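Reviewer 2 asked us to include a model.

Predict the structure of this chain.
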Amino acid sequence: MLLSDNLPNKPESRIEKYLSKIAGEDAELPEEPESRIEKYLAYLSGDEDIELPEEPESRMEQYLDYIAKNGGIGGGSESDVYSEKYFSLIKRTVTSVSEPELTNIGPGAFYGCPVLSSLSFPACTTIGNSAFQRCTSLTAVSFPACTSIGVGAFSSCTNLTSVSFPVCENIGGTAFTSCFNIREVNFPACTSIGGGAFSGCSLLTSVSFPACTSIGNIAFMSCSLLTEANFPACTFIGSSAFCSCSRLASVSFPKCATVQSYAFASCFSLTSAIFASCGLLGVNAFYNCSNLLSANFNRCTVIPSSAFYNCSRMSTISLGACTNIQSNAFQNCFSLSSAMILQCTGIGSSAFMNCRSLSVVSAKCKTIGATAFGGCYNLVSLYLTGSTVCGLTNSNAFTSTPIAGYSVSAGKYGKIYVQQSLLASYKTAANWSHFSDKIVAL
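Predicted model (structure tokens):
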């Protein structure tokens, strides 16, 4: 909401008439100013012949005196005056702000100041929501003492190129969203990045947050030139956090325990993903990462639906602790050649569908879903090492594989290897009986 949206329809007092004139309205001014404040306001209304007081005597006069003489806002030690409805419009004409003692900038304090290009807040520790939103002339900001940035604080500052907050710990949601020209960010102490904080920062090429432990939803979504992301302490990555970062080449999050849905979806240039500590992976987490070659998720117990769907170049994946692979998890991973999922007890429907290079699978499966291996043209060896007969939902689990019939591409029939003690049971079990001539003892 623009600051002018809540202005009264008609000024009623003498001061409101002056402020209305300053705001650009067609207001009838008093004939002569009657107070010190009115002299300042008359001057700012365009009457430059007015003789201003030699020295300001109140907080309001400090602000007005600074504006009249410097074209900026300063002087006061607090920001409460910034919220006055008429006075807020004066800020739209300022080019600079200097507040050496100010510690808190309130919500919307400088919202939509189109010509504001210079800031100095050396003592400021807190920036409120939307405080500098749509300040389109800002090119660089530095807040040496700021520890917290509010929601949308600098969003849509479209000419901002660099930001430095050396002690900031918390970045609010959408704080820098749609800052299309940001190229450099400095947040060495930041521990938490809010949702959408840098989404759409399309010129950002590299980010390093050495202390950050949490990355919010869509935090860096559509940062299309981002090639490097360094988060050595991060333990949580929110949904779509890096979605559509199309130039991100490799990621390593050694301490990350949780990667939520679509976190890296459509990162087309991603070739390597190392998450040695990850125990919880969201659906579609690496969906459509078509150049991903390898992934390490040795602590992940569940690979959720479509987690690696369309990762067409991925040839190897390490899943040492995985016990369950859900539907479509590796569908269309055309280059995946083997799946050593030794602890896995459940494979969902279409989990490995169209994995054309897959030749060997070994698992302790208790269930295999419909079309789980459909279209795996080269699957010649399936090792079922469990101590009970695995449930087969549908015989179409092996459609268009050497297990279902002779394969020209593989040059052979496929085999299903089971425990000797279970051989007879498999040959007569529901749906397995279709492959009785392919079932042999380990």
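Residues 11-93 form one domain. Helices lie at 14-22, 36-44, 59-70, 87-90, 423-428. We have added this to the supplementary material.
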